[in-house]
């Protein structure tokens, strides 16, 4: 893991500017202090994936407001849950008057995908000296956008600075989007209805494209298509447990397809 | 026991902590704990991923077919056409999310202003 970074640093130091794909200081000098790496991570939060995420939080705020969640509660939800799919499931449970245990079960199921993501990220960040509680704290920042950014860029950060860099990425994304949610609540009532409709369309389009792009195997695409169809179908047939049913049935059918294809 | 059923100011926050924070961070913490111990392509993880993917896809499907707020007043056919063509644009552009999202949004707005 150290070798590609070291090679990159050696090549980059004489003429760093020509490597400035994102900004002229990326990656910072390998001898740069910790604060520089934190700020560099914070800057990564304003890259294209970061901006797309901001627009989906605009959509989320519109959704939450519509469900009867207050601005403070939505800001609290953004900081404590920090996974847009789970937050949308939670707001869906709020809107349909789901009882706490059922809401908890649905959100738990929607968040399972975070576990393999964290499992893939931890080896990238851990060095011999990394303290375990730092990793537990940083794992709260793991969600699709920060994970994609980290997996793409951590390789070019010196191993001892990776936790700092990721704290910069995650902390900035969370803080920025808490502000975004609060601002949208303040202005939402003044928007024309076509604009509100367009905002509510952002979330499904963001998930549709990001989920398709992040699927590692073909079976992920199969599961996605099944879920898209089963969700609305079970919404009519089993309105109280539609998401759970679609997840369990769609997931198991896709998994069966996966096993069948591997045998064939 | 639902989010809006109890008038106490703290109830929604407790609801978010239990059904939101605890329900998501349990998986993040478990991921740190298991990091490196379980293989990424183990069969159990494949099943876990397909169920989670299908569930989130179900959320997407419901947001398009049974939306809330201002989107609920738009025609279903317009929403489905906008999303489908947006997705085609996403694939055709080499999986560029911006292209897909912008296409769907422009089609939706065009449809609304032309009164489809």
Automatic annotation (TrEMBL), chain B:
It comes from the Bacteria. InterPro entries: Brnchd-chn_aa_trnsp_AzlD. It holds the Pfam family AzlD. Keywords: Membrane, Transmembrane, Transmembrane helix. The chain crosses the membrane at residues 12-34, 46-66, 72-92, 97-114. The keyword Methyltransferase does not apply. This is AzlD domain-containing protein. It comes from Mesorhizobium intechi. The lineage of its organism: Bacteria, Pseudomonadati, Pseudomonadota, Alphaproteobacteria, Hyphomicrobiales.
